[in-house]
UniProtKB/TrEMBL annotation:
Keywords, in A-Z order: Methyltransferase, Transferase
Keyword check for Methyltransferase: yes
Pfam families xrefs: Methyltransf_11
Region of interest (Disordered), residue spans: 1-21
Organism expressing this protein natively: Streptomyces taklimakanensis
A molecular function (GO) term: S-adenosylmethionine-dependent methyltransferase activity
Domain Methyltransferase type: residue ranges: 54-143
PANTHER family hit by this protein: METHYLTRANSFERASE (PTHR43464), METHYLTRANSFERASE TYPE 11 (PTHR43464:SF90)
The UniProt record lists the keyword Signal: no
Annotated InterPro entries: Methyltransf_11 (IPR013216), SAM-dependent_MTases_sf (IPR029063)
Xref: Gene3D superfamilies: Vaccinia Virus protein VP39 (3.40.50.150)
Listed name of the protein: Methyltransferase domain-containing protein
Any single GO BP term: methylation
Domain of life: Bacteria
Length: 234
């Protein structure tokens, strides 16, 4: 039995499979298995060495651990205590991002994993305001957004360690611009799924959302424009 009570799923989010499932439908077990990609390299090349870094929605530390190895001082935030118990070597904070108020500023605030595409615009704006609230003057916010055609390119799949990540379907929810994404994580010893709503956001709409939170795009860091460095506006 877990010492943590079961958390209420966020609207439109669901997950299946063995072990704990977070309110946004992620399986803790899956996130302990998924290998890290080039994310730490993208981050390290965009910010000063040794920076203090606030990672929002850190999960099981897939990116946290390589960032710590690169010398960043990481504070890792997640609303799932079951995810956070997998994080080693970082200061951890268990909280929804929307209401996070650490009374502290960081050189870098990281909002990865496409959380900025959350379907509810009030939640999205609250996520971005949390980034703005915690970034130091002269610091930066790194955001990972979806690729332009991701809502059209389904089904699609990729290998991940000894597993397979399949975006099985992306279906309209009835709300303009919002799709329900269904992912399958297939490993030799088990299968997990996550379903979540995603709001499509072109470049213009994304930049407008940043403006509303007191942030401005400084640079698109990757050719596909999925990684963005934003700066606080005074
Ligand atoms: C898709 S996982 C990604 C984890 C990690 N960023 C990675 O790339 O491995 C998303 C994580 O963000 C957390 N999360 C999602 N929305 C959140 C919110 N509004 N506040 C706090 N945590 C959130 C979930 O609990 C989950 O651990």
């Amino acid at each position: 039995m877990s010492e943590f009570p079961r958390q209420t799923p966020r609207e439109g989010h669901a997950g299946t499979g063995a072990g704990a499932i977070t309110p946004d439908g992620c399986a803790v077990e899956v996130y302990t298995r998924l290998p890290v990609g080039d994310e730490p390299d993208v981050i390290a090349s965009a910010v000063p060495a040794g920076a203090t870094l606030l990672e929002l929605g850190c999960g099981a530390g897939r990116m946290t651990h390589p960032l710590l190895e690169r010398g960043f001082a990481v504070t890792a935030v997640d609303e799932s205590p079951r995810m956070l118990e997998k994080v080693r070597g970082a200061r951890t904070v268990c909280s929804p991002i929307e209401t996070l108020d650490l009374d502290e500023r960081f050189d870098v605030v990281l909002l990865a994993s496409f959380l900025v595409h959350t379907a509810d615009v009030r939640v999205r704006d609250a996520l971005l305001r949390a980034c703005r609230r915690h970034v130091a003057d002269g610091g930066s916010v790194l955001i990972q957004r979806e690729g332009e055609d991701w809502h059209e390119r389904a089904p699609r799949e990729r290998r991940a360690g000894d597993g397979l990540v399949r975006i099985a379907s992306v279906q309209p929810t009835g709300e303009p611009g919002v799709s329900s994404v269904h992912c399958e994580y297939v490993f030799p010893d088990g299968t997990w799924t996550q379903t979540f709503p995603s709001r499509r956001m072109g470049r213009e709409e994304f930049e407008e959302a940043l403006t509303g939170a007191g942030l401005v795009v400084d640079a698109y860091l990757t050719e596909d424009r999925t990684w963005v460095r934003a700066l606080p506006v005074r």
